[in-house]
Each structure stands twice: as structure tokens, then as C-alpha cells.
Amino acid sequence: MLFNSTCEAYGNPVAFFYNNTGKAITPAWRTHDYFVIALGLPICVCIILSNMLVIVAIIINRQFHFPIYYLLGNMAAADLFAGISYFYLVFHTGPWTIELSIQQWFVRGALINMSLTASVVNLLAVAVERHQTIFTMQLHSTMTRRRVVMLIVTIWLVAVFMGLVPTMGWNCICDLSSCCTVAPLYSRSFLVFWAILNLLAFFIMVAVYTHIFIYVRRRNQQMSPHTDQPSNNQTVISLMKTMSMILGAFVICWTPGLVILLLDGLSCTACDVLKYEKYCLVLAECNSLVNPIIYSLRDTDMRTTYKRILCFPWRRMRQREGPSGIRFEPVKTGAPLEKNSNNSTTLEPVSSQSLLSS
């Protein structure tokens, strides 16, 4: 048993804990409940589809088969998981909250906590990877695939553990005086710990990227313009700018919500945290949709791969039809047919030179 079922409050419904903290809960549908569902569902669908596109692009394009891109793919997996978590949250919020059991309520919170932890730890891993790689004068890390896989597995193990911490006893079911307002079954001490831990991680990542930028800029100024190194430096700087945009978007989207949790954990009665709770949640949800957009805007290869994936079914249909729209089946002969490179149906990446020549 993950829950302490010996205390008296354990048998109460979820509504009991909401009423205990003063957070409004009602079985009647209100206007903003419909608004949350109408806005949340399309965003969740877009988050899931866009991050699936990122993962597929990294898998099929051999130019992305490096540790940094594997970690970016894992970041997309965390965003995909966040989209699924928000999807679950949309159908378990508002008047539906009253019908939840205590276990279901904790599952809802654990999914959100896991997605945030996976994203934060993954961004920390990317920051360390970039710091180690650039300070050893390399463009890509020399980490083996086995180490990358072990790192990704570790990230998700940490995420699962942090998501399950409240269910393992750090909650207020048996101590109603310590219940917070935003999440009425969570202990205020847990919210303070959770918010400070993530804000500290944000500060560390910003410091690491600032150090990297200062180093790269100084090295770029010291190098002679007649060597071929500046072009390589531009690639490093471009990749660093992309990662900084991802980090910046993450900090902007999640910091308000973490501040709200911190204020609630510190029992700030004058802060009116419930007034801003929904807005902070929507802002945090949008972060999982921003990253695929940043990839497409900053990385030409990623954008090209997106187009090839999305146009693949249409290209195959066009190849099987003649100019008049009549469908032609390939003629089976003893010798294999020779494929035209411009009409290939494979999703394997082509080099930049072949793209330019075509």
C-alpha cells in the first residue's frame, strides 16, 4: 500500500479535502469548465502529434544520430508524455474531480510531476553534455549509444520516483492542517521542496549555458578569420542558440506555476494563488507545444525532415498514378527495377549537396 489508510481522513472523498482548504468544487458545470476543456483538448492533440513528429524525424534522419539529438528526442518524449498527462487531466478536472477517488487524484498529479521532472532532468543532462563537449573542442559528444540509453533510462527512473513521492507518504491525508490550497491533498512542505528544487535546477542550467556562451564567444574572437574554424564555431553557436531558446521557453512557461506552488506552500494567504492557478497551468501546457516549433524554426535539416515525413503518403500516391490519375502497378520482372533518386519512396535522409543539386 502506497497510502496510509490507517488515519481517519483516508476514507473521505476528494471533495472533503477541497472543502477543507477552501478550494471551490461543485458538481455543476460552469462556463470556465467548458472553456478549459474546449481549449485544452486541441492543445493536447497538437502536443502529442507534433512531438511524435520530432521523434520520428530524429529516428529516420541519420544526421541526427548523435547524443545531443538523442537527448532532444527524449525531451520530445517527455513533452509527448506531458501531452498525454494533460489529456488525462482535462477529463478528470472540473465537476469530474468530485467523482475521483484518492488514488485517481494522486495518479493525476503523479503524471504531471513525472512529465515536469523528466523535462527538467533531461535539460540538465543536455546542459552537462553541451558543457563537456564544447569545452573539449568538439561539435558532438563522444558518448556511446549504450551510455546515452543508460542516461535516458536514469532520467525516467528519477521522473517516476519524484512523481510517486506524494503517494508514498509525503501528503496531508493524515495531517489536514498541512494541506495546501492549489493541490488540496498535497502537503505544503512538499510543494516548497518541489518548487525550490525545480527553480534551483533552472538557475543551474542558466548559469551553465551562460558560461558556455562566454567561452564560445571568447574563443571565436581569438581565432583567425583565415582558418576554417569559425564556420565550425558558427555551427556550435547556432546549436547553442537553439538549446538556449528551448531552455528559455521552459523557464518562462514553468516559473510562474512554480512560484504559485512556492507561495501556496509558504501559506501566503494574501497572494490569492487560486486566481492565477489556471493561467499558470495553461502556460505550462503550452511549453510542450513550443519546442517542436523551435526545432523547425532553428534547424533546417529538422524542417526538411518534417516536410518529407508529412509529404511521404502523398508522394507514394503520386508515384503510383500516371499524369491522368490512372493508377499503375509496378511490372514484376526477373531483374530489380532501377529507382530514380528524385522519386525514391524511402525516408532515408539525403545529404545537403544532393538537396542543393536537386
TrEMBL record:
Any idea which UniProt keywords this protein has? Cell membrane, Disulfide bond, Endosome, G-protein coupled receptor, Glycoprotein, Membrane, Receptor, Transducer, Transmembrane, Transmembrane helix
Q: Chloroplast as a keyword?
A: no
- State where it is primarily located: membrane
Domain named G-protein coupled receptors family 1 profile is located at 50-295
- Superkingdom as given in the UniProt entry: Eukaryota
Compartments where located = Cell membrane; Cell surface; Endosome
An example Gene Ontology cellular component term from the record? endosome
What membrane topology does the UniProt entry give? Multi-pass membrane protein
Is Nucleotide-binding there in the keyword field?
no
Polar residues: bias regions? 339-358
What PROSITE patterns does this protein's entry cite? G_PROTEIN_RECEP_F1_1, G_PROTEIN_RECEP_F1_2
Annotated PANTHER family: G-PROTEIN COUPLED RECEPTOR (PTHR22750)
Q: Which family does the record assign?
A: Belongs to the G-protein coupled receptor 1 family.
Q: What is this protein called?
A: Lysophosphatidic acid receptor 1-like protein
**Protein source organism:** Labeo rohita
